[in-house]
Design goal:
Layout: E1 5-11, H1 17-22, H2 26-29, E2 33-36, H3 37-40, H4 44-58, H5 70-78, E3 83-93, E4 96-106, E5 111-119, H6 128-142, E6 147-153, H7 157-165, E7 169-170
Parallel strand pairs: 5-6
Antiparallel strand pairs: 1-6, 1-7, 2-3, 3-4, 4-5
Helix pairs in contact: 4-5
Length: 171
């Protein structure tokens, strides 16, 4: 059976950051720290943390299939020209990596690709995915992107709804 994909886009010049920020729940988020992968560094240990977090969060993507091995992940996701540690926001809880929002850079074409937003199951329901997504949209805008593109499995209704609530529209 073929997977149906939904392609969405966000015009960063029209993005209402204030309205998005008003939806954040600061009290629920105060025990988390949001940092970029650039701030954390990109040594082997950080690559391993990113891989493990991405793999765990990806388990809930409908029809995801088998996840990469660590070596494949580094080759296909990190060691690529579109990888940009400035566009990967990590949520930390007591030093533990518990959530991520990752985008890849296509700035030569004026856009970034929203790759993945995920939160470990034990930390869901606090608005962390929204906070990560908003923080990464700010980063993408700061990096000079004028638009964001993303592609979602049609069965991933929670991710699609979150994106649409932030102004993403069908492409």
């Amino acid at each position: 059976m073929a997977i149906e994909w939904i392609e969405l886009g966000l015009d960063l010049q029209a993005f209402d950051e204030r309205a998005a920020a008003e939806r954040l729940r600061p009290k629920a988020l105060e025990s988390f720290t949001l940092v970029t992968l650039e701030q954390l560094g990109l040594g082997t240990e950080q690559q391993q943390h990113l891989f493990e977090l991405n793999r765990e969060c990806a388990r809930d993507i409908p029809d995801r299939g088998r996840f990469h091995t660590f070596r494949q992940y580094v080759t296909e996701r990190i060691d690529t020209p579109t990888f940009d540690p400035r566009a990967i926001v990590i949520a930390l809880y007591d030093g533990e990596w518990v959530g991520m929002a990752a985008a890849s850079s296509h700035l030569d074409d004026g856009f970034m690709h929203d790759e993945m937003t995920g939160v470990l199951r034990a930390f869901r329901g606090r608005g962390l995915a929204l906070a990560l997504k908003v923080a990464n949209i700010r980063r993408m805008r700061m990096l000079g992107a004028t638009s964001v593109r993303t592609r979602q499995n049609a069965a991933n209704t929670a991710a699609i709804a979150l994106n649409r609530s932030l102004g993403y529209v069908d492409r």
